[in-house]
Specification:
Elements: H1 5-21, E1 36-37, H2 38-47, H3 54-63, E2 69-72, E3 75-78, E4 99-103, H4 108-114, E5 116-117, E6 124-126, H5 130-138, E7 144-148, H6 150-155, E8 161-162, E9 168-170, E10 172-173, E11 178-179
Helix pairs in contact: 1-3
């Protein structure tokens, strides 16, 4: 079977929009932990004029390079990145000594003043390596990689969580824990 990569990107974006930000737009209700039955999602997408086959859904979940979605049994959810209130029920974990964040030059003045803020999302997203942070930062222009002293943050009482796809989450990164490039 030939996989239409453009179609899978469209399905992934559709899922992100409705599993992370606007489930009510297509008439689905996420449970408190962000899960929705796969059958409900597929029926809602079909009724909304964007039919998704079970095979396409499986391809998007399995093939997404960022592992944005998780299927457990007969239900699905986004791994992280929600702008709506969900409890991903992630245990607090000790982070590695350093984590990374990709951004662009235009964001640096605000980051220097206020640190990294979660903005419209539930958490600040941090990468485990510079390569991932570079890809994230490049979505908005020429990437600048910030190094986060996550070990010191954790020792200072800041909570960290790791999503199913390896993204590190925290509520706020104060500027004192950020190493800016020269």
């Amino acid at each position: 079977m030939v996989v239409d990569e453009r179609r899978l990107v469209r399905v992934s974006k559709y899922l992100s929009k409705h599993l992370r930000h606007q489930p009510e737009r297509i008439g689905i209700a996420l449970d408190p932990n962000g899960w929705v039955p796969v059958s409900d999602l597929l029926a809602a997408a079909r009724a909304h004029g964007f039919p998704i086959s079970l095979a396409e859904l499986a391809d998007v979940v399995a093939g997404n390079d960022k592992q944005r979605f998780v299927i457990e049994g007969d239900r699905i959810r986004a791994s992280q990145g929600h702008s709506i209130d969900v409890d991903l029920d992630l245990p607090e974990v000790e982070p590695p000594p350093s984590l990374f964040h990709g951004t662009v030059a235009a964001s640096l003045p605000g980051i220097r003043a206020d640190g990294l803020l979660r903005m419209r999302r539930q958490h600040v997203h941090l990468s485990p390596d510079q390569e991932t942070a570079t890809r994230v930062g490049a979505r908005r222009g020429r990437p600048i990689i910030l190094t986060i002293d996550s070990g010191a943050m954790h020792a200072g009482g800041h909570a960290f969580f790791r999503s199913a796809n390896g993204v590190w989450l925290t509520d706020h990164v104060p500027p004192s824990f950020i190493r800016f490039p020269a």
